[in-house]
Amino acid sequence: MKLVARYTQIADDFAVPDFPSAVAAPKLLLWNDVLAQQLNIDVASAERAQVFAGNLNSSNVAPVALGYSGHQFGHFSPRLGDGRAHLLGAVADQQQQLWDIQLKGAGATPFSRGGDGRCAIGPAVREYIMSEAMHALGVPTTRCLAVVASGETVYRQPPQPGAIVTRVASSHIRIGSFQYLASQGDVAGLQALVDLAIARHYPEINTTGPERYLAFVAKVVEKQIALVVSWMRVGFIHGVMNTDNTLISGETIDYGPCAMMNQFDFDTVFSSIDRQGRYAFGNQPNIANWNCARLAESLIPLISDDEEQAVALLSPLINGFSEQFNHAFSQMWAQKLGLDGEQTHDKDLVSELLGLLKTHKLDYTNTFTALTESLQGNSEIPLELTAWSQSWLQRTSDSSYSIMRKANPKLIPRNHIIEAILKDFTQQHQSPILNEYLHALQQPFQSQVKESWTLAPEDDENYQTFCGT
Fold it and tell me: Phi then psi for 104, rounded to 5 degrees?
């Protein structure tokens, strides 16, 4: 596996050399063969457990832990960083694009803040399943290459078997990465990081000076809007949208306390630590806007020496978030309902539907599947929506089914099924349903879906997710 370094020239304390800590008895549990082929990763099968546990490193590139800051639930922490992750380097895919290869759970780093740097097997398997499901759902996301059992116990509540997950990302540049350099007053580092980010993610930006950095912020805003709209299309709740968990590439990262919404409600929260609903399903757009504002603040020194002038230039980009989001959000609902074009009363049609979904506690995914398939005579419209559907059907056309089938998955990673699989892995390092379920999740829009995998438990309101640290 040929690796290259990406971040070592940004700043002295940005990419800190640090080797993973060897584990006792690594065993390969999950391997993403399709992704490995795309990335030209040619590690011999006999060596995969050792390499992706961090026990074996034959590369001339030193692993690093990246530094970053973060607003965690609104409270700023200037020095967070990779407390349990080691970036091995980047590999070039078949199109010569670079992708970061990171081991998560590979031991303590200079950023661990007293933690053990390890990961339990449940969160590792969750990240693998969820990221692959999101990729198939058409949601921008980091990917998982492998999960390796460590053969060691991770001391959580209760103690659990340990594992290392290999994460693949187009980059690990976060909003918190810029906050980290800005908090240190490192203007040269900020400029170097923006230039690296533009080269990787936004090469179409070819201006110089302040216009270059303003264009960069505008692109990040666009990507964050597209990401959150994608989340809301499929009912995904991230659960911990801190600035350190926000990639400027617009990819989903950190599948800790995430979950999928079953019964529709904008106020849905599953994360055990989100007691105020800061990261509730319907609040995700506001938080994305807030996070983008924190990025803009970090880049003020690159815009102008006059802070007031810099703020005046950046403010329209942040203040314009809502209008851009609302446009994209409306387009998303139009796709989910198969509306061709735009008419005056479409917003009322969507608003009435969402009110009915909440009032009658209808399942988000299954309701839109039923509406979609009703156009082909393959499903009945839910009784609660019969009156509403008269207006909706008048807005459908010959192309509506095709539009809706692409927007509305039949299958999502249901919370209770994920939990059953994680329990299996915690107890016996494998699950009898995983392979079949993963295969189905990779084809979420297909017509043949096992009915038991589409059902949600009645007590889902009591479901809680937890951070994996």
Answer: -110, 120
Sequence-distant (6+) residues with CB within 8 A of 96 are none
Residue 236's closest CA among 254, 221, 220?
254
Which residue of the set 18, 244, 254, 274 is catalytic?
244
The Cα–Cα gap between 399 and 289 comes to 34
- pLDDT value at position 110? 97
- Give the C-alpha separation, 64 to 62, whole Å: 6
Question: C-alpha angle with apex 388: 382 to 391, nearest 5 degrees?
Answer: 125
**CA nearest to 88, candidates 206, 24, 172, 29:** 172
Give the pTM: 0.97
299-308 mean pLDDT: 97
First-to-last C-alpha distance (Å) of the chain: 29
Angle at 88 between CA 86 and CA 90, to 5 degrees: 130
Please list the helix, strand and coil fractions of the chain in percent, rounded to the nearest 5, in that order: 45, 15, 40
Give Dmax (Cα) for the chain: 67
Residue 443 CA, chain-centre distance (Å), reads 19
Mean pLDDT of all residues belonging to the chain: 96
Active site residue 244: yes
